[in-house]
Write a structure and sequence with these properties.
three-stranded parallel sheet; six-stranded mixed sheet; 8 helices; 310 residues
Length: 310
C-alpha cells in the first residue's frame, strides 16, 4: 500500500507546470561563441529587473507552458504521447476525455501527414486541446476549429472535436483541422512561392473586400475556381492549408496545378512512394501526466537597440 502511494506521489510530482521563477538566467557576452537556444534581448542599458522581465516574455512566447493562458487552466485531463518513427508529439487535453474513435483519427491523421510531409511535421511537438471556444474565424465568421501560432504546437478548440464535416468535402472536422493547422508550419519560403504562383497582393489603391468575419482581404487568387473552399479564396496561407487537406484526404477535387506544386515541393507524395511509418501510442491519465520543461540556466545575449547603418 505504501509503495502504491509513493508511486502516485511521484507521478503527481511530474504532473505540474514548470514555474518560470525557478529558472536561472546566464548572460552570454557578445564575443562568446553561439550557444543553442540563446535568447537575444534588445537594449544594453536595461536594468537587471527589465532584462529579467524581457527574458520571461520571450520564454512565454517560445514555450507554451509558461503562458498564463494555459497555467491558469490547471493541469490537463489527459496526455496522449505518439511516436511516429523518431518524431514525438504530445497531445495535452483540457476538455472531455477523448473517445477511442477520436484518438484513432488523431493517430491516423498524423501518420498520413508524416508519410507525406515529414519535414513539416517535425516543426510540431505538441497538440493542445482547449476546453473553451476560440471565438469566430476572422475571415469566415464561423466557429474556430483551431489555430497554429508561432512555436512548436497547434491548438484545437472544442468545435474541432464535433462529429461534423470539415470545409473540404468528405473529410471529418477533426482530421481536416489537424491537417490544416499542421500545414501552417510549412516553410515560409514555400508559402511565399505559393502566394506568388496562385494569386497576387492587392495594391494600396485597390478596393479591399471585407470578409464575413470582419477581416480586410488583401490577397486575390488568379483563378477563384481553383480554390478548394470559400476560405481558400481569401488568403494565400489558407489556400495552401486547405489544399493540403484536399491533397491528403480528397485529392480528386483539388486543382491539378496545386497538386503538382505540392508534389514538386515534397509536401505530398504519391501513394506508392509514401514511407511506412512506425507508431507507438501511450495514453496517460491524470496521475501519470508528465508536463514539459526546459533546463536551466537560460542563456541570453544583450544586443544594441539601434541598427547599424552602412
Amino acid at each position: 500500500m505504501n509503495l502504491e502511494k509513493n508511486q502516485i506521489e511521484n507521478h503527481n510530482e511530474n504532473a505540474k507546470f514548470q514555474h518560470i521563477s525557478s529558472l536561472i538566467f546566464e548572460e552570454i557576452k557578445k564575443d562568446s561563441p553561439d550557444v543553442n537556444d540563446t535568447i537575444e534581448i534588445l537594449g544594453e542599458n536595461k536594468t537587471n529587473e527589465e532584462i529579467e522581465e524581457a527574458i520571461k516574455e520571450e520564454l512565454k512566447k517560445k514555450y507554451w507552458w509558461f503562458n498564463e493562458k494555459w497555467t491558469e487552466k490547471g493541469l490537463p485531463e489527459e496526455q496522449i504521447k505518439l511516436r511516429l518513427d523518431n518524431t514525438i508529439i504530445d497531445t495535452y487535453n483540457w476538455g472531455d476525455n477523448l473517445n477511442n474513435e477520436q484518438i484513432e483519427k488523431i493517430k491516423d491523421t498524423l501518420i498520413l501527414f508524416c508519410s507525406n510531409s515529414k519535414d513539416t511535421l517535425e516543426n510540431t511537438k505538441y497538440i493542445l486541446i482547449n476546453n473553451t471556444s476560440g471565438g469566430k474565424h476572422k475571415i469566415t465568421g464561423d466557429e474556430l476549429n483551431g489555430r497554429s501560432p508561432n512555436g512548436d504546437f497547434i491548438e484545437l478548440f472544442p468545435n474541432a472535436l464535433k462529429d461534423i464535416g470539415h470545409r473540404i468535402k468528405n473529410v471529418s472536422n477533426l482530421e481536416g483541422t489537424i491537417i490544416h493547422e499542421l500545414s501552417h508550419k510549412i516553410r515560409l519560403e514555400i508559402r511565399n512561392k505559393w502566394k506568388k504562383k496562385f494569386g497576387k497582393d492587392l495594391s494600396w489603391n485597390e478596393k479591399k473586400q471585407k470578409a464575413e468575419g470582419g477581416a480586410l482581404i488583401d490577397w486575390k487568387p488568379y483563378d477563384q475556381f481553383s480554390c478548394i473552399s470559400d476560405l481558400a479564396c481569401y488568403d494565400f496561407d489558407e489556400d495552401l492549408c486547405e489544399s493540403m487537406v484536399g491533397a491528403m484526404k480528397n485529392p480528386s477535387i483539388l486543382d491539378k496545378n496545386k497538386m503538382e506544386f505540392l508534389k514538386k515541393n515534397n509536401l505530398i507524395s504519391d501513394k506508392n512512394d509514401r514511407q511506412n511509418i512506425s507508431i507507438e501510442i501511450n495514453r496517460l491519465s491524470e496521475n501519470d501526466i508528465k508536463m514539459p520543461n526546459i533546463e536551466s540556466p537560460i542563456r541570453y545575449r544583450l544586443i544594441d537597440d539601434e541598427l547599424e547603418i552602412y
